[in-house]
Specification:
The chain has 16 helices and ten strands. It is α+β, with helices and mostly antiparallel strands. It has a six-stranded mixed β-barrel with strand order 2-3-8-5-7-6, surrounded by four helices. Helix 1 (3-14) packs across helix 12. The longest helix is centred in the first third of the chain and has 39 residues, at 20-58. The relative contact order is 0.18.
């Protein structure tokens, strides 16, 4: 591109035209692109924040990787845990027993997943300690038959700290009176709140020895839970353990355990991106109407340039420069504004709530009462690149139309 084409294009962009309406349309096109990009960056950042927050809450209870056998039991778990620990990405292991049970207290009855744990090892695998509302995991001691309940499970039963809750195992025992369910009374020694309904309303923790006695597991467990130094490498570690562990074991990671949930979140993020992207597309294609009016207004200038020797391609480049400048500045302003707003969403939203007396995410309805936000550089780069390309594409038709103007026809009535 020769210098005069760039200079004329820049001059047309910043010059005060006779038709101020064209200048106004150029400004609104630029602002439209900027606002569209701001909205898109903020929406994707909030979606990323929600995804991260939910993933953190899930991994506060669920482990990164679980190892078991296909019948749901594991007899040689110390050997399996030692073998898994040899993987450099595994930082901690913990055995567990999972079983279904019925909890009864006073007039309340509720089904739940009973998980037997070793408190000292469980604390190394999951971050449940920081979610304890009352008591500690360490209060679960073998032989004392203590139990830790999810907060919604405790509320539905009407139980509180110190309450005696009866746990009923579905496996029966044979007596002279017939087959009767096994039951044992446990004392509530802790209450946790993760923020996920599936755990808060359906999970109870007991010591692994007490669970083994209740469910007659002897020296067996349901499996071994692993913690990794990088949660995103869990699929790779699970694949490696499947091939390296000495025996026939069932290995699954947190992405497969919650596959449907995270797939739904990812799909929702994609749909939101597509919807918000149309805002940017509409603003970018406003450049078409802007340049069409500029071409109409500058027909005489174009004709003079043609008579002075400018080629059709040079005329086309002049108007491409003008449209590109609008797109570049709109994209730049939008990216800066979007990143600034998304990075300070925790300040902006509370301010809006105070000013208008609103509360977007009520604690009584939503588990996440604050808007989380996480700005991801790849998202910002993708948005900026696509927006700029749209702006560039929008300049092609008006520029091509300008290059086809006949100088004689344009100057006939001048």
């Amino acid at each position: 591109m020769r210098p005069y084409e760039l200079l004329i294009g820049l001059r047309y962009t910043r010059a005060k035209r006779r038709n101020h309406f064209i200048s106004f349309i150029s400004l609104t096109s630029m602002i439209g692109i900027a606002l569209g990009i701001v909205v898109l960056i903020v929406v994707l950042s909030v979606m990323n924040g929600f995804q991260k927050e939910l993933r953190t809450r899930i991994l506060g209870v669920a482990s990164h990787v679980e190892i078991s056998q296909f019948d749901g039991t594991l007899s040689d778990w110390p050997k399996v845990a030692a073998s898994a620990k040899q993987n450099p990405l595994v930082v901690a292991t913990a055995p567990y027993i999972n079983a279904q049970g019925m909890l009864s207290f006073d007039q309340g009855v509720q089904g739940a997943l009973i998980r037997g744990i070793v408190p000292s090892q469980e604390s190394q695998v999951v971050d449940l300690d920081k979610n304890m509302k009352a008591g500690r995991l360490a209060d679960l001691k073998p032989g004392e038959f203590g139990i830790v309940l999810g907060i919604d499970l405790a509320r539905s039963l009407g139980a509180r700290m110190g309450s005696k809750v009866t746990v009923i195992a579905p496996q029966g025992q044979v007596t002279p009176a017939g087959i009767l369910p096994r039951l044992k009374q446990f004392t509530v020694v802790g209450i946790f709140e993760v923020g996920m309904s599936v755990y808060d309303s359906g999970l109870a923790l007991v010591d692994i020895d007490d669970a083994a006695k209740l469910y007659r597991m002897a020296d067996k467990v349901s499996g071994v839970r692993l913690k990794l130094n990088d949660i995103y490498l869990a699929p790779r570690v699970a694949q490696e353990l499947t091939t390296t562990l000495p025996g026939d074991y069932y290995v699954r990671d947190w992405t497969t355990q919650n596959a449907n949930f995270f797939r739904a979140v990812k799909m929702e993020k994609t749909v939101m991106f597509v919807i918000m992207f149309f805002i940017v597309a509409v603003a970018a294609f406003n450049i078409v109407s802007t340049l069409v009016m500029v071409v109409t207004d500058k027909q005489a200038d174009i004709a003079i340039l043609r008579t002075l020797g400018a080629s059709p391609s040079s005329i086309m480049k002049i108007f491409i420069v003008q449209g590109t400048v609008i797109g570049v500045f709109g994209t730049l302003i939008g990216v800066l504004g979007g990143v600034a707003l998304a990075s300070n969403i925790d300040v902006v939203v509370p301010f809006i709530e105070r000013v208008f007396g609103l509360h977007f995410l009520s604690k009584d309805v939503y588990y996440i009462s604050e808007l989380p936000s996480e700005v991801q550089t790849p998202d910002v780069i993708a948005i900026a690149t696509v927006s700029f390309l749209l702006s560039l594409v929008a300049t092609l038709y008006p520029s091509w139309r300008a290059s086809k103007i006949n100088p004689a026809e344009a100057l006939r009535y001048e």
